[in-house]
Structures are given as C-alpha cells and as structure tokens.
Amino acid sequence: MTHIVAYLCVLGSFLNGFDQCTVPESEFQLEGDYLIGGLFDIHQVNSSFYHHRPEAIDCSSAPFILSSYRRFQLMRFSVEEINNSTKLLPNVSLGYEIFDHCTDSVNFPGPLNLIAVNGLIQPLEEPHKNLSKVIAVVGTYTSPQARAVAPLFMMNLIPMVSYGAASSIFSRRQIYPSFMRTVHASKDVIEVIFSILTEFNWKWVAFLYVDDSYGIDGLQLFLKKIKDTDICLAYNKALDHYSDYKAIFKQINAQNVNVIIVFAPEWTVEELMKSVKQINVTNKVWIAGDAWSLNKKIRDQIQGIKSIGTVLGVAEPNMTIPGFREFIYSFKAQTHCENAKQQKFCNQICHCSSLTAEEIIDADPSFSFPVYSAVYSIAHALHNILQCGAYGCKANIKVYPHMVILCLLSLNLTLFKNCVQVPTSVCSTECDVGYKKTQYGIHKCCFNCTICPNGTYNNITEDPYSCINCNNTQWSEEGSTSCSLRVVEYTPFTDIWAIGIMVGAFILVFISLALSVLFALNYNTPVVKSAGGPMCFLILGCLSLSSLSVFFYFGEPTVAFCILRYLPFLLFFTVCLACFVVRSFQIVCIFKIAAQIPKLHSWWMKYHGQWLFITVAFVTQAIFLLINYIYAPPSSKMDIYWNPQKIILGCDIDFKAALISLVLPLLFCFLCFVFSYMGKDLPKNYNEAKAITFCLLLLILTWIIFATGSILYQGKYMQPLQSLAVLSSLYSFLLWYFFPKCYIIIFQPQKNTHHYFQNLIQSYTKTISQ
Asked: Which end of the chain is more exposed for a tag (fewer CB within 10 A), N or C?
C-alpha cells in the first residue's frame, strides 16, 4: 500500500505541469452541475512508450484514430442532447471532462485528474469526504486500457461505464465492483462466433488474436467453448507489431484451414489486411470480432483485395442516432483552432481542425451506440437519484458515485448479423448418413467416410465412428441409420400351396383305400395275384402312412414337426421299396432261378422269404432312424442368410448323420433296377419290370428336381417344394404301378382270367425252348 501511495503522489505532482497547449474549451470540457469523465483513444500509440523517468506521453503526436474521434464527439452530443431535454434532467446540467487516452501503460494523468480534488489525490481520506465532482466515467475503449485505469476508479466506487472493454475479467465484481459496460462481453461475442461455426458446419478453424489481455481472453473463451464439441482449432497465433504474417498464412494454408477468426482491434487488423494483400491470401472465410467488423477503413482495404473470400462479422448494433449529423455540422461551423483558449490539462488537444463534417460523420460507426447508451445510462441513474419529475429535480440531494452504481441500468443489445453464400471450412466433409467416420491424424475433425455394410447401421448420436451390428432378428441395407425387424416366414396351413398339397395327400389316401377295396373284391383274380396279392395291401397302406409326412411341412416348425416330416416317409416308404424288391425277385425266381437253383426257391417258399425280408427291412430301417434321431435329431432353425430382410423358419438336418437312414432306400432302388432288368423278357402280365423301372425313374427325377431347387432357392416355399417331392414320390408308384392293373380289372376283364394267363405262360415256355 505504501508503494501505491508513493506512486500516486509522484504522478499527482505532475497534474499541474501540462498547460502549454491550447484547444477550444468546449471540445474536451464542459461545465455542469454534475461531471461525467470521458476517456477516448483519439490517438493510438502503436509501440511501447520508452522512457527513463516518470513522464506523461503527449497523445497528440501519435497516429490519429478517426473512429475514436467520432465516438468522442458522440459523447459530447449525448451530453448536449440531455442538457437540451426538459424531461430527463430538468433544471440540472451535465458537464464533462474528456481526455485523449492513447495508451494503456503510461497514460495516467487524465484518469488521475478525474479522481483528484483541487489537484490533489489523498487515497487515505475517509470515504465520501472531499470526493471529486465526477460522478461517473465513460470509457475506456479497449480492455487493456480499462484494466490499467479501472483500479483508480474502483478505489472510490466511481462508476466506470465502458463502451468497448469486453474482456471477461471485468465480470468479476469482487475485483471491479463499479465497472459496467454497454457492450456485450467477449463471452457473448465468442458465443455468436460459435453459433456461426455450428450453423454453417465449420469445424476446422484458425484463431488470430491481439497479443494483449483482450485477445488472450478471447482465445481462452473460444477454447473453453469448443471443448467437447466437433469444432477443432487447427491453428492460433498472437498478433503484435512484429508478427511475421507470411509465416502465419503459410502455416494456415499448410493446415488446409479455410475459416479464420480474427479477434483484435482495428489498428491490428489494418496491419493484418495490408499483409493479406501483399501475400495474396485468397478465398478464405474471415470472421470478424466486434472490435473491427464495421470499420470502414478496413472494409475499404478488404474491397481492394482480389478474391479475399467471405467476411462475416459480429457487431454491436449500428444504429442511426438522430441529431448527431446536425450536431457535427453545427460544431464544425463554429470551431476554429486558431481562436482556441488555453487548455487546462494535457492530452486534451486534437489537431483535427482540418477534418470536415462529412469525414467525421462517415467514419466507422462501431461502438457509437454504446457511447450514447453509456451517457444516457448515467443520466437515467442521476434522474432516479434526484427524483426528477415533470417540474424538475430535487436540489437538496447529495449525489455520491456509489449511489449512481445502484441505479445504473444494464442494456441488453441485439447483435447485428450479416448473411453470404455458405462457404465451408472443414478438414473433412461431413459423412453422409449411414457412413462411419474413420479418424486419421490427431484431430477428430479429420476423417474418412466408410459406408456401413448390410446388417449394420450407424447412429451419429450414439457413435459416429462405428458400424453397429444388427442382431439376428433385425436387418438393414447398406448405409442404414437403424435396423428393422426381419419378417419371420414359414408356410402356414392356410397357404394356398399348403392347402393344395394336403388335399393331394388326402386324395392319395382315398385312392389307396379305393384300390384296396377293389383289390379285395378281386383278390383271387390273376391280375391281383400277379401284382403281389396280399403284398398289395401292405404297399397301399405304407403309401398312405408315408403321406402323413406331408402334413408336417406346414405351420411353424417345431422339433416334433421336424421329426415327423421325415420319420413316416423314410420308414414306410422303405417298406414300400422292400415290397417292390421282393416282388421283382419273386417273378425272376419263379421263371428263372427256380429251375437253376431249386433249393433256393424251395427255401424261399418254405420260410416265406418275402415276408421275412420285408420284416427285416422294416426293423433295420427303424433302428437306423432311431440311431439317427438319438445322436443327431432334427431341430427347428432360423435361416438368416438367404434373405437379409427375412427369417426363414425350417428344420435343421445333420446330413452326415442322416445318411444311415438313406442306405436301405438307395439299396432297394438299386436292387429293383437289377431284378427288373433280369425279368425284362418275362410274360407280359407277369412282367413288372417296365412299371417298376418307370416308377423308379419318376422317383429319381422328382428328387433331382428338388435338389436343384434347394440349391437355387431357400425361401419359405422350400418346405412346400419338399412336401411336393414326397407326394410325387408316392404318386409315382400309386399311379404307374397300380392304375394299369385297375384298368385291366375294370375295363379289360377278359385279360383277368386264368386261361389268358396260362396262354401267356405257354407262349413264353415255347419261346424259351426254341
């Protein structure tokens, strides 16, 4: 504290030492009942002020900032407009004390003068005693300037209403209790910049910022905002008077960055744009912070750069303030520097008498409305403190700066927005729906897009970097964003094909029953005996029992259904084939083997070899089926591979295990062919070779067609196709073996006599003997 007091006293000793310059008194100073301080950077020192001893800088020798001079005049206009009003502060006049605040480091005489009383500063004085006549201060413009001088005003709780300082540090009330601003904080500007990036899907950006507290604060806020988002900061760089812009843009181009955020004051951006023109940087998207977005000088620079790209800006409202134009024209008409009175204090000189009214009016209007708002906010606070009404304000109220703080109103201003074509700035173009991202490099914004294959999907909200597998009951096409339930298919009993095939099975049973009746009525006739006699009834019965399998090919497959699909057919059809083997063998045995091997024939007849053979075949096949179903029973299955959109319900068969149950049927088919061939020259009515051979050929052709179809097609109609093959196998023997005999019995009874058969046998015997 001792060091601070000493420093203030040293600086205070210079308060009366700067009276060598003259300016019009009305420009920087105005007497009034209440004073408002003003700090405007009418001039701007571009480099650090180097000195060997404590001394104030002469701002008038620094480069002139026309836009700041316009804001300075706008404060003067606002005070004059309020003084001319009879509503806001009637019978009360406002005055001002304004200083050219051209640097943020050594420009303290102006702020010290505002808090001084009679040229003296006494920091240890009792609060509210001998305070300055200044009730509030409008300024400063930049955050570094405000940060440097704000503690001087915070000390006595003098309201400091800034029209441009946006750094987030000033939101800390415990440090800056009397600091207020009529502009949005940098946090709000960053929010809008972030909204622009997300609106246009720009995710790969560069951030250039001024190398001071304002710029660094903006960078930190931006990094905090894009954390845990898809936006990547590809490049960032602090800018100062020594920046190598060529190297900066070389790096930006190397990173393939198309969107550049520039968070810096106008004088820094002017140098930047000069370099942009020299280096020939083209086709970029520039996002301007509110510190330079409406600057006309920079706009003229940009228009002079060929193919600079797109410039978007975040700006305070650019509002036309009625009466300001007339005020400037009136002021320029009355002001002549050569008639100016002696100035009272340093940094209250402009050297700008050569400016025309048009130049001032047409200067950059940025932050003009915040200046206007700041003055009016202070005036409204004073209006409330003095309890002003239609007849005036109370004169007996002592106004202290801290009272103004309590009454100041914060203004919520709408940001000004500009719209263009929509450029893009992404490291990688966003993937289409149904594509997954495959990141390459260190940035999540850089990725390749891979379409998700069939059976998978991509959910961008769940995981944009993966193709998620659908489960077995779902399906998806290539490039899907979700899975759909598969359609479960099987052939129900109500299906037209199922009804037709089951009707065919019933007809087969009916025909078998009818044939059995017909053969029973003609049991002792030669035709029935040549067909097998009592064996015919066994064959017809086994054919009927085999047809039971057909009914279990329909409905939802279960284990029981899967077993019954094959068991009746494989068991009873094997018996049928055994009967045909026996029948073929008996005919050959009677006419050929009996004479050559009489003992075999005698044994066969004595022990009823045909029935023994059929019984052994039945028992053996039953054992084979039992072994098959014990070690590899059929089971229901879901076919999810044939059609990706459907689940085909069927039966799962272990074909290797099932081969054992096919041994006898295949063997009997072979024996039938052999015996049929051996009996090809037997008497016509006893020759069953052609009929059996034709039935076997139909059987083989049926299952060849089925096997071909099962290779080409695996849909739900595979089950009806297999049941149709079973039914066709049964019909082949029913029609082509029994129907010719029925025809003779019904329509050619003359051929169904013993005499007719004896003649055929005698004719065969004569042929053999010859």
From this structure: C
Q: Is 318 inside any structural domain?
A: no
At residue 89's C-alpha, the angle toward residues 84 and 95, to 5°, is 70
> Cis omega (within 30 of 0) on the bond before 86?
no
Sign of CA dihedral 718, 722, 727, 729: positive
Q: CA-to-CA distance for 345 and 116, rounded, in angstroms?
A: 13
CB atoms within 10 A of CB 504: 17
Cα distances from 678 to residues 167, 589, 673, in angstroms, run 112, 10, 9
Alpha-carbon distance of 674 to 396, in angstroms, equals 138
- pLDDT at site 261: 97
* Per-residue confidence (pLDDT) for residue 498, from 0 to 100: 92
Contact 316, 184 (CB under 8 A): yes
- Which residues, including other chains, have CB under 8 Å from residue 237's CB and lie 6 or more apart? 206, 207, 208, 209, 243, 248, 251
What does DSSP say about strands 484-485 and 474-475: parallel, antiparallel, or unpaired? antiparallel
Q: What backbone phi and psi angles, to 5 degrees, belong to 648? A: -95, 115
User: Is this prediction's pTM over 0.70?
Assistant: no
Q: Are 157 and 405 in contact (CB under 8 A)?
A: yes
Give the whole-angstrom CA distance, residue 379 versus residue 79.
9
Residues 6+ apart with CB under 8 A from 598: none
Q: Is 64 helix (H, G, I), strand (E, B) or coil?
A: strand
For position 500, what pLDDT does the model report?
A: 94
- Flag whether 4 is in a domain: no
174/205 same-domain check? no
Q: Is residue 490 part of a domain?
A: no
- Given a cut of 50, the residues of the chain with pLDDT beneath it are 1-24, 337-342, 411-419
Q: Supply the pLDDT for residue 760.
A: 64
At 599, the amino acid letter reads K
- Looking at the fold, whether 142 and 264 belong to one and the same domain comes out as no
Closest CA to 693 of 707, 683, 679, 704: 679
Identity at 203, one-letter amino acid code: K
In contact, 740 and 694? CB cutoff 8 Å: no
Whether residue 258 is found in the same domain as residue 369:
no
Q: Do residue 214 and residue 256 come from a single domain?
A: yes
Element (H, E) at 138: strand 134-138
C-beta separation of 210 from 264 below 8 A: yes
Close Cβ partners of 411 (under 8 Å, ≥ 6 residues apart): 182, 373, 377
What lies within 8 Å, CB to CB, of 297 at 6+ separation is: 66, 67, 266, 270, 364
Task: Give me the long-range contacts of 278-282 (CB less than 8 A, separation at least 24).
Answer: 279/245, 279/246, 279/249, 281/249, 281/308, 282/306, 282/307, 282/308, 282/309
Q: How far apart are CA 68 and CA 227, in angstroms?
A: 36
Question: Are residues 380 and 502 part of one domain?
Answer: no
How many separate domains does the chain show?
Answer: 4
Tell me whether strands 94-100 and 29-30 are parallel, antiparallel or unpaired. Answer: antiparallel
**Per DSSP, what are the bridge partners of residue 416?**
315
Cβ neighbours around 22 below 10 Å, total: 15
Q: Identify which of 474, 473, 476, 431 has the alpha carbon closest to the alpha carbon of residue 457.
A: 476
Q: E strand or H helix at 449, and its extent? A: strand 447-451
Structural domain boundaries enclosing 261: 186-313
Same domain (yes/no): 575, 501: yes
| Buried-state track 419-454, b at ≥16 Cβ within 10 A, e below 16 | eeeeeebbbbebbeebbbbeeeeebbbbbeeeebee
Give me the pLDDT at residue 452, please.
94
